[in-house]
């Protein structure tokens, strides 16, 4: 049997049960429902009952204590419900028992109908009392007392019950108030929860959108991941390859390290050796320098022994189209050492035609013998000739002025000897290019011993005692702007040609370019004055400067290579026309300068106090290349033709005179 509970307790229990369901709003009572009522309203709801109970006395009160509907449900009350059913009329002690049972069980029982005033008193013990006789006043009194007692008891009981019910009501009201407060709290909570729910919905929406977005991103990322995976596979492959390479490299490195340590040991020993070598090298350098100085001394001694003035005779070959000379016209007798000795003698046979013609007998021949430092027969090559002068040229590097002349009649081969043959044939290269190449090469060798050389070239021609620059370029090219020979500075021994170019040279090509330029300049001049080149002296000069910075040594000397003007004389028997007069003047100028050259050499040889350098431009220009410390070489060029015999003899005689000269001991121009 279901235990009976107070309706308020039941509500409370329900609320208590519903509390955990706060987060399930759908199950909470909705606003406007019966739970919305506060405690006051609830009291109001109870009020009619109260009123009724007041009216209905105890029986009605008992009805209000019915557990379920009356207190909390708002049901329309029908008349039948509001009107308590009539209970059987009980009197006596049973009355209190019945009421006590009703109160005890809390069961809705039939309300006791209000007793109408004047109604019969309740019966006692359920038995209708026997009616006393009217006379039994005592008995009647006794009955009335009993009834009164019963009513008193009942009244007392009802009062108690009433008190209880009022307590209960108060309690219920308190509970109702508490419930109302709780309800408001819950409503607040509900509102908050709803707001939360709305927010949650919104968040959910956002989250859904975010999820979609993330899903999209995920798709992209997955694609990316696939790509990366592929890449990773490739990279792994590469990594494996690299690892293999690394391994290989490490292996090599190890091998290299082993080799390196070996090499380091080797390097250490090599360094030691290098130090030893360096010390040795210094020592060798010292020795080498000593030897070089000794070489220079001996070289000079040798040159002196050979003579500071040397004369070489060179006979050119017979050119195509020229008459072959009669056999024995030119002879090259062997020296004391036989044919192995280089020839130094030349014999010229000259037939005295006048004597032969007069006597009618074959013309007798006269032999003219000449002896020189060296004679070059017609077949001698340029290289052979240069070989003989190479040592002399080298003296210029050692600081001795060197001067080489080519003397002879026009067409005897002077220019060929000095500059070389036409056509750029290397075999036909003359002394100037060969000498310079030799100088550059020796200077480079000496560079290894600490010497530094510089070379400055000039090339002028002296025609009719006027000096002209053969290296002129630009507007001055080909024009005979006169140059002057001057001292380089006040008190200076050095001579310089004004208006002439001095060109630094360091290689053959530069020299070749200068020779080419000189040829062009001569060619331009030739158009205005025919064959002027053979009527002028060409002077190629190279100023050589050397320095040994380590030892503070310096040397400087000029190398002069001179292609002299044709030495031929004018035939005194020839009639003098206007052209010849000019020619005569040229010839006189040439002869004068050539004889001055001879005189200068003689004066130097004889150690005369006055040397007539200034008598000609040529000797003045060559002043520093002749004399005391200088070395001189004269080529006397001879034509092989019999028709030139007279001029050849003249040249040979002049050269012989020169050859007899000895210039004092040469001194190197050392500073
Ligand atoms: P020069 O300068 O004395 O007037 P060249 O040097 O011009 O004489 O020579 C005249 C000609 O003879 C030129 O054609 C030249 O090539 C030629 N010649 C001179 N010497 C020789 C030689 N040793 N070998 C070959 N040809 C030569
Ligand atoms: Mg010439």
Structural class: alpha/beta
Proportion of strand residues: 5-15%
How far the N terminus sits from the C terminus, by CA atoms, comes to 152 Å
Bound molecules: adenosine-5'-diphosphate, magnesium ion
**Approximate helicity band:** 40-55%
DSSP summary, beta strand count:
14
- SSE sequence, one letter per element: HHHHHHEEEHEEHEHHEEEEEHEEHHEH
| Unreliable residue runs | 1-126
Biggest beta sheet summary = 9 strands, mixed
Q: Overall mean pLDDT score? A: 78
**Cα Rg:** 78 Å
* Helical stretch tally: 14
What shape does the CA trace take?
rod-shaped
Structure write-up:
With 671 residues, the protein is of the alpha/beta class. The protein is built from 14 helices and 14 strands. The strands form 3 sheets. Strands 1, 5, 6, 7, 8, 11, 12, 13 and 14 form a 9-stranded mixed beta sheet that branches. A 3-stranded antiparallel beta sheet has the order 2-3-4, with helices on one face. Strands 9-10 form a two-stranded antiparallel ribbon. A hairpin with a 4-residue loop joins strand 12 and strand 13. Helix 2 runs antiparallel to helix 6, helix 5 packs parallel to helix 6 and helix 8 crosses helix 10. The longest helix has 170 residues. It is rod-shaped and about 250 Å long. The chain starts with 6 loop residues before the first helix and ends in an 11-residue tail after the last helix. Bound molecules: adenosine-5'-diphosphate and magnesium ion (MG). The site of adenosine-5'-diphosphate (ADP) has 14 residues, from helix 9.
């Amino acid at each position: 049997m279901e235990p009976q509970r107070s309706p308020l307790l039941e509500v409370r229990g329900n609320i208590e049960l519903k509390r955990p369901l706060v987060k399930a709003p759908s199950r909470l009572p909705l606003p406007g429902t019966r739970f919305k009522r506060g405690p006051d309203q609830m009291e109001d709801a109870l009020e009619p009952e109260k009123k009724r109970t007041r009216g209905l006395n105890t029986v009605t009160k008992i009805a209000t204590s019915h557990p379920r509907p009356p207190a909390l449900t708002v049901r329309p009350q029908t008349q039948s419900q509001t009107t308590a059913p009539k209970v059987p009329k009980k009197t006596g002690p049973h009355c209190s028992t019945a009421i006590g049972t009703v109160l005890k069980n809390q069961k809705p029982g039939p309300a006791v109908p209000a007793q109408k005033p004047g109604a019969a008193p309740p019966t006692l013990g359920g038995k209708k009392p026997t009616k006393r006789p009217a006379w039994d006043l005592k008995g009647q009194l006794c009955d009335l007392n009993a009834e009164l007692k019963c009513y008193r008891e009942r009244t007392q009981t009802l009062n108690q019950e009433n008190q209880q019910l009022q307590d209960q009501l108060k309690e219920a009201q308190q509970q109702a108030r508490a419930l109302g407060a709780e309800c408001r709290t819950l409503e607040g909570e509900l509102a908050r929860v709803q707001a939360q729910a709305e927010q949650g919905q919104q968040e959910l929406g956002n989250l859904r959108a975010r999820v979609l977005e993330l899903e999209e991103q995920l798709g992209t990322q997955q694609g990316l991941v696939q790509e990366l995976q592929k890449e990773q596979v490739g990279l792994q492959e590469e990594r494996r390859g690299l690892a293999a390479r690394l391994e290989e490299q490490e292996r090599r490195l190890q091998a290299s390290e082993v080799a390196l340590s070996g090499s380091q040991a080797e390097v250490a020993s090599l360094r030691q050796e290098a130090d030893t070598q360096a010390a040795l090298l210094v020592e060798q350098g010292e020795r080498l320098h000593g030897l070089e100085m000794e070489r220079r001394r001996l070289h000079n001694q040798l040159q002196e022994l050979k003579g500071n003035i040397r004369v070489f005779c060179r006979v050119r070959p017979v050119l195509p189209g020229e008459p072959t000379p009669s056999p024995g016209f030119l002879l090259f007798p062997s020296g004391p050492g036989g044919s192995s000795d280089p020839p130094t003698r030349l014999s010229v046979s000259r037939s005295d035609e006048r004597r032969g013609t007069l006597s009618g007998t074959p013309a007798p021949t006269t032999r003219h013998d000449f002896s020189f430092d060296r004679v070059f027969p017609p077949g001698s090559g340029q290289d052979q000739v240069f070989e003989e002068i190479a040592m002399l040229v080298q003296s210029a590097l050692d600081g001795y002025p060197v001067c080489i002349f080519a003397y002879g009649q026009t067409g005897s081969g002077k220019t060929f000897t000095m500059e070389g043959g036409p056509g750029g044939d290397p075999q036909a290269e003359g002394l100037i290019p060969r000498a310079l190449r030799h100088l550059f090469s020796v200077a480079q060798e000496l560079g290894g011993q600490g010497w530094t050389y510089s070379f400055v070239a000039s090339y002028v021609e002296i025609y009719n005692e006027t000096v002209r620059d053969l290296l002129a370029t630009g507007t001055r090219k080909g024009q005979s702007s006169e140059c002057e020979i001057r001292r380089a500075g006040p008190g200076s021994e050095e001579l310089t040609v004004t208006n002439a170019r001095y060109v630094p040279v360091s290689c053959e090509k530069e020299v070749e370019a200068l020779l080419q330029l000189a040829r062009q300049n001569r060619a331009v001049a030739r158009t205005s004055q025919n064959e002027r080149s053979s009527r002028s002296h060409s002077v190629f000069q190279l100023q050589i400067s050397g320095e040994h910075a380590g030892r503070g040594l310096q040397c400087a000397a000029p190398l002069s290579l001179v292609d002299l003007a044709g030495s031929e004389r004018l035939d005194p028997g020839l009639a003098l026309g206007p052209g010849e007069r000019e020619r005569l003047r040229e010839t006189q100028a040439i002869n004068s300068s050539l004889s001055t050259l001879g005189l200068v050499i003689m004066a130097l040889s004889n150690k005369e106090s006055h040397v007539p350098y200034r008598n000609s431009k040529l000797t003045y220009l060559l002043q520093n290349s002749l004399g005391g410390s200088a070395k001189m070489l004269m080529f006397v060029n001879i034509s092989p033709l019999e028709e030139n015999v007279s001029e050849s003899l003249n040249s040979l005689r002049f050269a012989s005179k020169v050859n007899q000269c000895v210039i004092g001991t040469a001194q190197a121009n050392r500073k």
